[in-house]
Input
Amino acid sequence: MLGLSFARPASALEPDGVGAPRVRTAAGTHVRTIEIDPHNPRIRISIATAKGFPLRDETFGSMLGRVRPIVAIDGAYFSERSRQPIGDIVVNGRLQYAGMMGTALAMTRGGDALIERVVRNHRADWAGYDMVLGCGPALVLDGEIVVDPVYEHFHDPHVMHATRRLGIAVLRNGDLLIVETAQAVTFMRWAHVMKALGAQDALNLDAGASLAMTYRGHVLEHPKRRLTNLFVVLPRS
Output
């Protein structure tokens, strides 16, 4: 079950542009959402990586202690053997790792967001983007359900079967919506959830044993393993 709910109207964002977690129902599925205005000048969207990335992992608590985010969730799938992520990772405008598969969320320093599929084994040009988080599969693009994990070269049974999911949507107003499910869902059901929540574009992120979430110091989901990368919302210094 989803715990520690902070009930707020959908449009109520704090002065820093980060809304409180909400427990909702979409497409018959219980979810928790956090809405973020990425254009708010008080915050910055980034990726936090483990010490020794991309070959090392780190505890969630240790990463939070170093980064001190407003919001943090686990990011891209990564290999249990090599610890390397499956997709591209760009931090502060610099490519940290080229995974070259799946779907990526890319953001400019000003807060404009793009979600698009990448070409398998092709080095993408992320010039002009401050942050890139490559994972996938894509769930919704241009307002339409497009989920096709096999097309994006996802085959791991741990990923393909129904499980609790975590992902990010770009809403029609340009806001970001972090979404996690309270129950196991297939990718197709997951895509319908995102569309029901108003996603213009949306992608799936790592979940399962990696599922992690914190909001203003409250840890809402404790991962069952060490992690290599986090999607974070930081106060802008």
Notes: The first helix runs from residue 60 to 67. The helical segments are 60-67, 157-160, 187-196.
